[in-house]
Design goal:
Elements lengths: L9 H17 L4 H16 L5 H11 L11 H14 L15 H31 L5 H133 L6
Helix pairs in contact: 1-2, 2-4, 2-5, 5-6
Length: 277
């Protein structure tokens, strides 16, 4: 079984139409803020937050009557409803004791209720004034006033109920504000601690970088010294190799010379007579 369709009174529809026109003038291109204002206006008039279908129907059927053409998407409407519920959640009964009341929010919420409640009384006063001016019996106006008395009483009771709900909402907002302040302080301490640790890490990293730079400088000096030593050893080895090659050449020449002498001596010995040896 579906939910019953919401029925608006003439006074509520008129207030909603005026609110839509005013909000459209304030936010001609911002659908999000327009929807926030519309939901706040309907909440002030009806005392509750409705579903997305209700606001879409108001934009489709009521807004064009005041020359407003708005077609926000369903996700945009739903996000505005969630924002309204988050900003003004309903608090449990009896939690608003000794809490200050948001007078501006109360005034916005009660203005249409008071207008609607006093409208019959104004009408009866006008009828009584017209009756006296036209010579009619004054009892007719009194009878109308008595007939409207239950309506006035119901409207006042509804206004008191809305005041209580607004006080509960205000108390919840103050609690959430206190929690937000506490969370902010904790976050600030945590951030300060993290910043201190970060500065310490940077300082340690700076000291480590200085040590690494000094070590790199020392290694570069050692590398240059070893290179110079290597060059010196290479030059010495090259010189010694050249000297050995020169000595080797000299030894070969002496060996060749000795071989020639030995060969000459053999030939000499071979040419002598046998008796002379």
């Amino acid at each position: 079984m579906g939910r019953p369709r919401i029925e608006w009174s003439d006074a509520q529809l008129l207030a909603i139409m005026n609110g839509i026109a005013a909000i459209d003038r304030d936010f001609p291109r911002d659908n999000a803020r327009f929807l926030d204002g519309l939901i706040a206006e309907v909440r002030a008039i009806s005392g509750r937050v409705f579903g997305a279908t209700t606001y879409s129907r108001l934009l489709r059927d009521v807004a064009p009557q005041v020359g407003v053409q708005r077609h926000p998407s369903a996700p945009t409407v739903q996000q505005a409803i969630l924002r309204a519920q988050a900003l003004a959640p309903m608090a449990p009964q009896g939690s608003a004791e000794n809490r200050p009341v948001d007078l501006e929010l109360m005034r916005q919420a009660l203005a249409p209720v008071v207008r609607e409640a006093l409208a019959p009384w104004y009408a009866s006063q006008r009828e009584r004034g017209n009756g006296h001016a036209g010579g009619a019996a004054p009892d007719r106006g009194d009878a109308n006033a008595m007939a409207q008395k239950p309506l006035l009483q119901a409207a006042l009771e509804d206004a008191h109920a809305r005041i209580r709900r607004l006080e509960q909402d205000n108390a919840q907002l103050h609690r959430e504000l206190g929690e937000a302040h506490a969370a902010r302080d904790l976050a600030g301490k945590h951030v300060n601690r993290l910043l201190g640790e970060l500065h310490a890490s940077i300082e340690r990293a700076g000291v480590g970088a200085t040590t690494l730079a000094q070590t790199a400088t020392q290694l570069a000096g050692t590398e240059r010294f070893l290179k110079m030593q290597n060059d010196a050893v290479r030059l010495q080895a090259s010189g010694e190799a050249d000297a050995l090659r020169a000595q080797n050449g000299q030894l070969r020449e002496r060996i060749d010379h000795l071989l020639l002498e030995v060969d000459q001596y053999r030939r000499t010995l071979s040419t002598r007579p046998p008796g002379s040896r």
